[in-house]
Amino acid sequence: MWRYKPLVSPRLVVTRRLALLTLFGGIGTGLVLCTLFLLTQGMGLSDLASQFIGYTFGNPEGLDETLTRAISLMLVGLSVTLCLRVKFWNIGVEGQIWAGAMAATAVVLYHIGPAALRLETMFLAAMLGGGLWCGVCAAARLYLRANEVITTLLMNYVGAMLAQQLLYGAWRNPRDSFPVSQSFPHGARLALLGFGHVHAGIFIALGAAAFCFWLCTYSRVGSMAHAIAANPLAARAVGVPVARVVLLMACLGGALSGLAGFSIVAGEEYKLTQFVGNDYIFPSIVIAYLARANPLGVVVAAIGIAALYTAGDSLKAFFELPGATVLTIEATLLFCVSCFEFFLRYRLSFVKRGRMETP
Amino acid sequence: MSEAVKLEAIEKSFGSRSALLGADFTLRWGEVHALLGENGAGKSTLMNILSGFYTADAGVLEVGGQGARYANPAAAADAGIGMIHQHFKLVGPLTVIENLRLACARAAGWKNQGAALQAMAELAAQLGFHLNPKWRVDEMEISDRQKLEIMKVLLAGARILIMDEPTAVLTEVEAKAALGLARQLAQSGRAVVLITHKLRDVLGYSDRVTVMRAGRTVIDAADSAGMTAQSLALAMVGEQPVVVAPRASARPQREILRLIRLSAAASAHGVGLREISLDVRGGEILGIAGVGGNGQAELVEALIGIRRATHGKMLINESLAPPGTEARREAGIRCIPADRMGMGLFGELSLGLNLALPRLLGKKPERRWWVRNGWMDGLARAAITEFEVAGAAPQTPARLLSGGNAQKLMLAREFAGHFSILIAHSPTRGLDIRAVHSVQARLRAACARHVAVLLISEDLDEIMELSDRVAVMSRGRLSEAEAIGQVDRGRIGRLMLEMH
CA-CA to B467 of 20 to 30 Å: which in A296, B191, B241, B256? Predict the structure, then answer.
């Protein structure tokens, strides 16, 4: 028999220090497990270090790839974060990216708005498209009681299919008949910053993060969102316009994903392709979760996850590891971080067995 | 009479908060033992240690003369200790017999439905209960649920029964029956602990009484016969209880709130409103008496604007009330709901944010673009001082407050700023004497400031003491309001039961 037995008791208060400790404990454990996993895949420790740290951050090419990818990842991470603030699960960032990208492309193809303000018009159109894509699901939840996990998820397919329809139909490139839109003229492209592929979208993403931080922490809407997440009935009873706040947060969240679509077509591809909105759902949730729904944390988490993809690309190329490797690592990290949240809610202590009622 | 339970110098703390600082308690077979104390005095914590929900940090626990320590409630139940909680631990959608089988099949050794039904029928006959085994629990009256809870504990083999404020949720008649039942159980040789803060329960129905204050035992198992309401109250609060100021006889003024034949749909398990008409003038308290669940909750919801009226009109200062909660609040309505933590406060949020939230709403929010923590903390500190919220800091989450302090926070939030109508639904339910007095004094103070106060309560004493006029609610209807001097309790009781 063990002399000590574990005792689990609920915590009354969570300090900021404890919150950080559990977060980094989770990430740390996840990284150790991932390292062990990669070692079993035939990689050495020095390979790992050079790929994950040396290449992704130390090498200009790798850093370029990481930062470029981080732009859209930040925006979708913020999108999920804003929605989470009112307990609205946005599983539909891909659909919103498609909506934003299509809206921006439509502005270019149909010459909407004054030519001098082409980029600005695209920016607004993308926000509108993404916002509507998510707002519809929020309205369905509020007025039809449709679960947003289902509706936002399904709206992904609507977005992707609509894009396919356009790319194989009206928007097909007339010159070579490939299913991609015409290339955007220079006036419809985001400026490069002179560091590889990194484009002006990074300012949009960082600006969005700052805005979201203000919105969640210092704005009236942020306080109301807090209240709605904590107790929707009491929020209604005290006069918080619950429906309006949820709609606003969901539409803003959708608009951020729409901007991600804009940054991809106007900053990276310069056209609408079939691959614009692929593989964003899972990372968006991982990023929001790792950041504990803190907009500034999203910036860090998005760069981290982007680095993971960069490293994953070179693993694919040099070590012939499958693309699922990156997904496995992401999933392991998410799993560990959510497991460590146990310690946020409960205190684990060890008490001596057989200790009787004496002090 | 031998000793059933002996607790000595029990200590228990939750994190940095000490709940018990050396509490003693002894219980004999065959007695009803009242355990009295203010909110947060440690009564429930002490009994939760006896029934295995918590383990003590230090102290001696003896049951039937032998040392004991229960790791969980199941171990305590095996030792014959059963607790009847204030919030019943029943499974809503299941039937009576299903709940019994779920809870006691193992302890009672039932092999099938027949055995369970027989055991239930025998016990029901002994106790004089009439419960249909096929009733669904969530459709039963509160008092019937309590009976089921008692049967559940007895069928699981309990010899030591702990009843946590059994009369808090019952009507007058039901409460008497429940207390009589406690006596009956004690006479059959069991030991009964009655956790309460009603002096009447102690003086009328218990053999001995233990009084706790701030985690310690201040009166240890004294004979109830030797106690008076005065001496118990003094022991409980530790000083001369606050005396409520006599009713201010300010002349009521013009009508501020008026309902004209207002109807509304029922909530999930409630009663709809049927053509309610009432008017409340500034500077008066209109009491609405009635057994809970007769449309009171729906009335509150309709008044604050979260339940839509299907019919009729609501006037504030003789103009039509705006739809929507936010606008009604701006029009001067404040509300203290019955379910503090469910519909009033935000348990997970800090005191500061709880207080700040309503100030951020409406057409003229106090902070528009920049809501600082410092501002919210300042609000919280002011409220903590003015409303004497004990054991709280601005950043404390509201769920850590005890019942009385949570209600003080509620008052601090609702009394802020200018308002003309106050709706108070069971504002003193579950509070200790001192908190009750301070809440009642606040209601009177509002009244003196010419606020129209609507007091909805199941506690007839409270209604009679505070109101200027009284109306009775029954099955969604409201009787004509009558001046308090012209009605007697008998008439109100008849209205509660007869008017349909």
Answer: B241
